[in-house]
Amino acid sequence: MKQDLVHDFFEIGSKAIFLIPVILFIIMLFQILGPSKGTPQIHNSPILTPTIVPAQKTLNLQGPFICTSSSKTASWSAYIKDKKIVVISKQNNEVGNYLLDGDCGYMWKTPGLTGQKICGISSYVSIAENLLSTGIISPDSLLNSNLSSLGTSESIGEIKKLIKSCKKSSIPNKIVF
Q1: Domain annotation covers residue 133
Q2: Do the beta carbons of residue 146 and residue 140 sit within 8 Å?
Q3: TM spans, by residue (predicted)?
């Protein structure tokens, strides 16, 4: 019973999908080839104006990339290779280490023996890749919306500065992913 209803629905839908364009084409032909009404038709040609389409930004995590930035009180280094990211921040005799590897992110400070592990990140990374590649969202809006909870606008500015400093380069062997 249910299968018959579903079958009937799709049968009618497939016929409509075929017939609607055919009917629209016939109506268009009648309008174009139909009898003229004795009034001269004026055809305005469109004026083409050049527009600049911004280049789509993509999230390239294949690398290898090295990014470095510093301020008066801190310095940051980021290394990106094969969808793995290592970020090292140095501030006031404390080194913050951040690693994104696969589905998990790791954060720890040295000197110290403990840190945090956060998993389930890969789906968010793929969503960001898709949104950036289609142009739905820009890198700046992505950073502003997602990093505003991490700190002040000054720290967000430093992260943007770090991202803009990325250069394609081989990564030293001392950096372990």
Answers
A1: yes
A2: no
A3: 12-33
